[in-house]
Specification:
Layout (H helix, E strand, L loop, with lengths): L3 H13 L2 E2 L11 E6 L2 E7 L9 E3 L4 E7 L1 E7 L10 E8 L5 E13 L2 H13 L8 E17 L4 E8 L18 E6 L2 E21 L5 E6 L15 H4 L2
Antiparallel strand pairs: 1-12, 2-3, 2-9, 4-8, 5-8, 6-7, 7-10, 8-9, 9-12, 10-11, 12-13
Length: 244
């Protein structure tokens, strides 16, 4: 049976189209070079370190994201508040399977290379000059988030009670990434990996790699779950990320 980490990766990539950063609080940077091992990107260098310059482009609109799987979120006012001004509200989170998760992020925006084809040419040139290894991967897209709350269950079940400040913000099903909520853990059972209201994260990314073609030259292969980007890029899926 797949591990909780692999289940989390599979669900996120299938539905959002990008790899989930693991551990969730790790920072990914555009232009990082590394390899994938058991669902985690291991940095071994950067484009800057091998002398390749690049410009960064903001590739899309800023948006908030809330996504979960095998997870239940329930809000209940605290009964022991002494005064309304200091009232607390509890968020009950229940995970019903391994790899169940809550992914809440505010202010997410993708960053990509401003001139991706020029970048591909630079990488091919570096490879031909023996300055690029075949096994290296290049982070070509990162999603930045102003703040995020990410919780992943490591067992078949887990329960967490979080305390937040009461008020209008808790009406309905709120996005737990909001730093104004002042999240704090009140109690928990089961095993989870947690990032609570952390700011300036990079929770999603994609990467590319060089692949020798049948003619002995090199093309760029996309490590992302899309059907096709352009003639120079080809989909790979999760097999490299998860070492399947």
């Amino acid at each position: 049976m797949p591990s909780p980490v692999k289940l989390y990766h599979q669900e996120m990539q299938k539905n959002l189209g990008f790899f989930a950063t693991w551990l969730p609080g790790d920072l990914m940077r555009l232009g990082d070079i590394g390899v994938l091992r058991d669902g985690r990107f291991e940095k071994q260098g950067s484009l800057k370190e091998i002398g390749i310059a690049f410009a960064v482009a903001k590739a899309g609109a800023v948006q908030d994201v809330s996504y979960s799987a095998a997870a239940e979120k329930r809000i209940a006012a605290s009964a022991d508040a002494e005064a309304a001004a200091f009232a607390r509200t509890n968020i009950h989170l229940r995970f019903s399977s391994e790899g169940g998760f809550i992914f809440d992020a505010l202010g997410m925006q993708p960053l990509e290379f401003k001139e991706p084809m020029k970048m591909a040419e630079s990488i091919v040139g570096a490879y031909e000059r023996n300055r690029w290894k075949k096994e290296w991967l290049l982070v070509d897209t990162v999603y930045t988030a102003k703040s995020a709350t990410i919780i992943v269950s490591q067992g078949t079940s887990a329960d967490i009670v979080l305390g937040i400040k009461a008020g209008d913000a808790v009406a309905g099903m709120l996005n737990l990434a909001n730093p104004k909520l002042g999240l704090s853990e009140c109690s928990s059972s089961g095993q989870t990996i947690q990032v609570l209201g952390q700011q300036n994260l990079t929770p999603l990314y994609s990467c590319v790699r060089l692949r020798p073609s049948v003619l002995g030259r090199v093309s760029v292969e996309k490590l992302r779950g899309v059907t096709r980007v352009d003639n120079a890029l080809a989909p790979v899926g999760l097999t490299d990320l998860l070492n399947l």
